[in-house]
Design brief:
The chain is an alpha/beta fold. Helices cover about 40% and strands about 25% of the residues. It is built from 10 helices and 10 strands.
Length: about 240
């Protein structure tokens, strides 16, 4: 399908500290692109720059057009970030949480259609649609956070540590559904410390160290790379 997002010379500073140091990436439409690296490497900062949450230098183009610098306008361009820690709204029901994700969508009929899509993908959420979202399990909250992002009809869905804190069997469900989202035609950018799982499902991967891309290739190439294996795969969560 070709490139949907081009990142050229991306730099992000926190005060005098350069957190991202001239990163270049090319995200292919309809793919899963994994960004792996250790804590503090700059992975989350990269997707925050894409989403407009942090100021940056360099160029970020979506289908050749520069992205606006404000978060709400980036979402309206079809680029949605699901943040680390899920950040669902406790005190609201599952369905109310989902509806908050559709704030850029016009028309009640379209919102209702999107709701049904989420319930079909995650039947457990349909069963709990009137339940306080704060009472869901960690895995159910993660599914809710992903579906809330999908309610905005994204072209690109950015997932930040979606498996963090989840039991292994739930992690498998999350990664299986990330593949399903890609298969629906949505481009996925996946930031994960679970390198083994990420590389196992992604089409392409970038390895980030101290704010720089030090390696890139297909998921299979990265799984077979001895440097990646030594640095990231031996300690990956199973």
């Amino acid at each position: 399908m070709g490139s949907i997002l081009q990142i050229q010379g991306l730099k992000v500073f926190y005060g005098v500290h350069e957190a991202v140091c001239g990163v270049d990436m090319d995200i292919q439409e309809g793919s899963i692109t994994a960004i792996i690296g250790s804590n503090g490497a700059g992975k989350t900062t990269i997707i925050k720059a894409i989403s407009g949450a942090v100021k940056h230098e360099g160029t970020i183009l979506c289908r050749g057009v520069p992205l606006p610098p404000r978060e709400n306008r980036v979402v309206r361009q079809g680029i949605v970030q699901v943040p680390e820690g899920r950040k669902i709204f406790a005190g609201l029901t599952v369905e109310e949480n989902l509806r908050t994700g559709a704030y850029t969508v016009r028309g009640r009929r379209e919102i209702d259609r999107l709701l049904q899509e989420q319930y079909e993908m995650f039947p457990r959420l349909r069963e709990r649609r009137q339940q306080d979202a704060g009472t869901l399990s960690g895995g159910e909250q993660q599914m809710l956070a992903i579906c809330r992002g999908l309610m905005a009809k994204p072209k690109i869905l950015m997932l930040d540590e979606p498996s963090l804190g989840l039991a292994p069997v739930v992690v498998n469900d999350v990664f299986r559904n990330i593949r399903r989202i890609r298969d629906e035609g949505i481009t996925v950018i996946l930031v994960e410390q679970n390198a083994k799982k990420s590389l196992g499902i992604c089409d392409y991967a970038y390895v980030i160290e101290t704010g720089r891309v030090v390696m890139s290739g297909t998921g299979e190439e990265m799984l077979q790379n001895p440097e990646v294996a030594a640095a990231y795969l031996g300690s990956s969560r199973k």
